[in-house]
Each structure stands twice: as structure tokens, then as C-alpha cells.
């Protein structure tokens, strides 16, 4: 194996006999564009609801719950899809989230939540991870659609006005602090203080 690696290294180390430096540079540039285009295409394909619910675990569990919420069907006709809430829109944040989500592939391969019972057993842990992520990024995905500055407080209930005004004024709370369970059912929170 080491002998083979040395042989390959010698080939790459040696200057090109048949191709000019300009040709190699242009070829590398074109190969880079093709790689980048393929990478972004794959990234966007994995950033669609069809991809998310392609897993039985997601389609049979959380996607079914989403369909009965205001984020799925509402008077304005605006629908939030899985990536809208679970994947940041900015490229660097999106890449970081995709890298973190690669652990989900591990769970898929080993069947961590491949039955309803397994899903329900892990539901609270999964929800707490997602809540912590949203808390840490100041509910970034929520704020892609919901903005305090765009809210018409006259159209909200008294309680919502009080809570949103307070959150806007002091900035201590973020969306997920009050809106857990807005798109999916809450896990069993018995034994947790404050529930």
C-alpha cells in the first residue's frame, strides 16, 4: 500500500509533460465549477420537504402532526415546510446545520427511531435538542418569516401583545421559549419543572 501511495505521489509531483500550465489551470477551474455546481445542487435537493419526508420515520410521525397546524394550512396560504423551520437560510449557517444533521443519517442506518414506539421513547430528547438549537441561534429560522417589527399588535390577543411587547423590549426571550409545540406535538413533559 505504501509503495502504491509513493508511486501515485511521484505522478502528482512530476511536472506535466503533455499539457501546458494554462490548460491545467483552466481544466482545474472548470472542474471546480462543476464540483461547486454539483455540490450546491445536492445541497438544495436535500433542502426540500420531499427529501425530509422521504424517511418513513419523519413522514409517519412529525409530518403527520404538522399537517394539522397553522404552519401547514392557514388563511394566508403560506406553508412552512420542514427546511423552513429546521434549516437556516444563510449559506454558512446552512452548511453548519447540514453537518450537524449528518448524525441523523447514523440514526437512520441503525434504526434509532424506525418504529412509532422508538420515536415516542426518544421524542423528548429530540425535541430538547431542537429547542436548545433554536434557543442558541435566537430562533433564527422563526425570524425568517416572523419579525417583531412587522407585527401588527392591534391584530393580536391581549396576552400575545403583552408577551411580544415584553420580548421585544427586553430581548431576553426568543420565539422557542414560548412557542414549543407550535408545529409538532409536545413530548411527555411530566417531571419537568415549569410544565
Please provide a written account of the structure:
It is elongated, with a radius of gyration of 24 Å. The chain has helices at residues 2-13, 21-45, 49-52, 56-60, 62-66, 82-86, 91-109, 116-136, 140-143, 158-170, 175-178. The protein is built from eleven helices and no strands. With 195 residues, it is mainly α. It has a domain at 31-146: Orthogonal Bundle (Multiheme cytochrome fold). Helix content is 60%, strand content 0%. 7% of the residues are buried. The mean pLDDT is 88.
Helix fraction by DSSP (H/I, runs of at least 4)? 55-70%
| Number of helices, counting only DSSP H or I runs of 4 residues or more | 11
The CATH class of the domain at 31-146 is identified as: Mainly Alpha
Strand content: under 5%
Stated plainly, the CATH topology of the domain at 31-146 is called: Multiheme cytochrome fold
Which word captures the global form?
Answer: elongated
Termini separation comes to 60 Å
Radius of gyration: 24 Å
CATH architecture label name of the domain at 31-146 = Orthogonal Bundle
Helices and strands, in order, run as HHHHHHHHHHH
Largest sheet data: none
Low-confidence stretches: none
Tally of strands: 0
Helix/sheet category: mainly alpha
Name the average pLDDT: 88
Amino acid at each position: 500500500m505504501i509503495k502504491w501511495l509513493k508511486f501515485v505521489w511521484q505522478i502528482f509531483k512530476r511536472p506535466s509533460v503533455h499539457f501546458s500550465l494554462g490548460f491545467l489551470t483552466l481544466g482545474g477551474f472548470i472542474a471546480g465549477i462543476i464540483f461547486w455546481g454539483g455540490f450546491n445542487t445536492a445541497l438544495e435537493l436535500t433542502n426540500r420537504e420531499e427529501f425530509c419526508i422521504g424517511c418513513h420515520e419523519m413522514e409517519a410521525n412529525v409530518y403527520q402532526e404538522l399537517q394539522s397546524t397553522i404552519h401547514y394550512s392557514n388563511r394566508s396560504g403560506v406553508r412552512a415546510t420542514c427546511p423552513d423551520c429546521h434549516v437556516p437560510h444563510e449559506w454558512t449557517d446552512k452548511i453548519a446545520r447540514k453537518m450537524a444533521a449528518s448524525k441523523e443519517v447514523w440514526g437512520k442506518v441503525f434504526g434509532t427511531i424506525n418504529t412509532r414506539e422508538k420515536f415516542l421513547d426518544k421524542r423528548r430528547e429530540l425535541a430538547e435538542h431542537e429547542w436548545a438549537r433554536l434557543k442558541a441561534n435566537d430562533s433564527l429560522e422563526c425570524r425568517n418569516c416572523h419579525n417583531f417589527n412587522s407585527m401588527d399588535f392591534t391584530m393580536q390577543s391581549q396576552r400575545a401583545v403583552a408577551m411580544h411587547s415584553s420580548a421585544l423590549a427586553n430581548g431576553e426571550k426568543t420565539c422557542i421559549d414560548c412557542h414549543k409545540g407550535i408545529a409538532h406535538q409536545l413530548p411527555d413533559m411530566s417531571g419537568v419543572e415549569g410544565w
